[in-house]
Design brief:
This protein is of the alpha/beta class. The chain has two domains: about 170 residues, FAD/NAD(P)-binding domain; about 160 residues, D-Amino Acid Oxidase, Chain A, domain 2 (2-Layer Sandwich), CATH 3.30.9. About 30% of the residues lie in helices and about 25% in strands. Strands 6-7-5-15-16-17-14-18 form an eight-stranded mixed β-sheet, sandwiched between helices. α1 runs parallel beside α5. The longest helix has 16 residues. It is globular. The two termini are about 30 Å apart. The site of flavin-adenine dinucleotide has 43 residues, from α1, β14 and β18.
Length: about 375
């Protein structure tokens, strides 16, 4: 006899699984969320909180991000947990003429896609952020770029879902998924079996393990990011900041060297700086390294020299759920009826959380979504998923 039953079982209690449980519950759909450790114990508890539009590829990726931003900007009205959403704008700082050429192209494409973004000259940049190094020749600026507290948002979604009737079970590992014919019939945990006809795989960097339970290959792998946290100081940098070298790489592949000195800097509400992040393929290893931390610290000091005299209070690493084309895997998997993917958000999972939750809940309740999910389907990686 089954331990429990639910219309939908969501596997994974990170930002994506909790957002899905939240939006499903808003639609009054009966949902159980299973998390093997605690809520936000995975990537969503070891990351930055940039809700930055400028780092998204123009096209469907940016469209999703802008819709998600609109939802997140109103989310505090619905959640009890303070989620620290702040729209302070964002800068992508430019150090070379080569980067400037690539970034001009980038601004043009982003503006055509409807993003409010402009190229600042040296004077405008330093007026907006006076503590930045004088060697920065220019920057792109979008007033839409924002930040949020990722752990608070994940907990907020989980609490909101629970209040609306979702059951959230932590310390519960899914060990197998049962199928009758081609239709999902149950998930197995150590506590027993849960009968369901719909399973959402929101397990981030572990998504391929869940896929293997069903004989489905899911090309998601962990990409480590190491982060530094400084002591708190009074306001020194208002907008979120990223460097152009990894953004420009999206538009100019010659600039695309692995981890090529890309850095982000964000001063939180408390005054601490979050400095990130490396991009490394080292399996599931979540340790920090002297080399990695030195790399991001020295790049950050080049850009914001006042950081040089600050104490570091903490360093940690998280794992981004990487996919080969940088886009998440969302939607139904045709090979198994009732199996839905919602993973592989790489470095964008916090920013894309709300729209992912909304679209997956639409898919479950109506069988279709407001925004077409074709570009995100798993079958883009293989012909063997039908
Ligand atoms: C250094 C760094 C900086 C980042 N900065 C940003 C940023 O500024 N903005 C942004 O938008 N994104 C950022 N990201 C990306 C973001 O953190 C991720 O995209 C996001 O957290 C992924 O969420 P998730 O819910 O898919 O995965 P997770 O948070 O990892 O959740 C998946 C959960 O599934 C659970 N699980 C796995 N297997 C099972 C099982 N068998 N049974 C039950 N539960 C299971 C895990 O325990 C885990 O809690 C950053 C990431 C890193 C590493």
């Amino acid at each position: 006899m089954a331990w429990k039953s639910a219309d939908v079982v969501v596997i994974g209690g990170g930002i994506i699984g909790t957002a899905i449980a939240y939006f499903l519950s808003r639609q009054k759909i009966d949902v159980i969320l299973l998390e093997k450790d605690g809520i936000a114990s995975g990537s969503s508890g070891a990351c930055d909180g940039a809700v930055v539009m400028q780092t998204k590829k123009p096209g469907v990726h940016l469209k999703l991000a802008m819709e998600s931003h609109a939802l997140l900007s109103r989310m505090q009205d619905h959640l009890q947990m303070p989620i620290e959403f702040e729209q302070n704008g964002g800068l992508i700082v430019i150090e070379t003429d080569e980067e400037k050429t690539a970034m001009k192209q980038f601004v043009k494409a982003q503006r055509q896609a409807g993003l409010d973004v402009e190229l600042l000259d040296h004077k405008q940049l330093h007026a907006l952020a006076p503590h930045l190094s004088d060697h920065l020749i220019s920057a792109t600026y979008s007033p839409q770029d924002s930040t949020i507290n990722p752990i608070a948002l994940t907990l907020g979604f989980a609490m909101g879902a629970k209040q609306m009737g979702a059951e959230i079970i932590t310390g519960s590992t899914v060990s197998n998924i049962e199928v009758e014919g081609r239709q999902i019939s149950a998930v197995e945990t150590a506590a027993g079996k849960i009968e369901t006809r719909t399973v959402v795989n929101a397990t981030g960097v572990y998504a391929s393990e869940i896929g293997r339970m069903l004989g489905i290959e899911i090309p998601i792998k962990p990409r480590r990011g190491q982060l530094l946290v400084t002591e708190a100081r009074p306001d020194l940098l208002k907008p979120w900041l990223g460097s152009a070298n990894y953004i420009a790489a999206k538009f100019n592949p010659q600039l695309a060297k692995e981890g090529a000195g890309g850095v982000s800097i964000d001063q939180t509400q408390n005054g601490n700086f979050l400095i990130g992040a490396t991009r490394e393929f080292v399996g599931y290893d979540k340790r920090t390294t002297t080399e990695g931390l030195k790399q991001i610290a020295s790049r950050a000091v080049q850009i914001l020299p006042v950081l040089k005299n600050m104490h570091l209070i903490r360093a940690f690493a998280g794992l981004r759920p990487y996919t080969p084309d940088g886009l998440p895997i969302l939607g139904k998997v045709e090979k198994i009826k009732g199996f839905i993917m919602a993973a592989g958000h790489e470095g964008d999972g916090i920013a894309l959380s709300a729209i992912t939750g909304k679209l997956i809940s639409e898919l479950v309740s109506e069988g279709k979504t407001d925004v077409a999910l074709d570009s995100f389907n798993l079958n883009r990686f293989s012909n063997d998923t039908t």
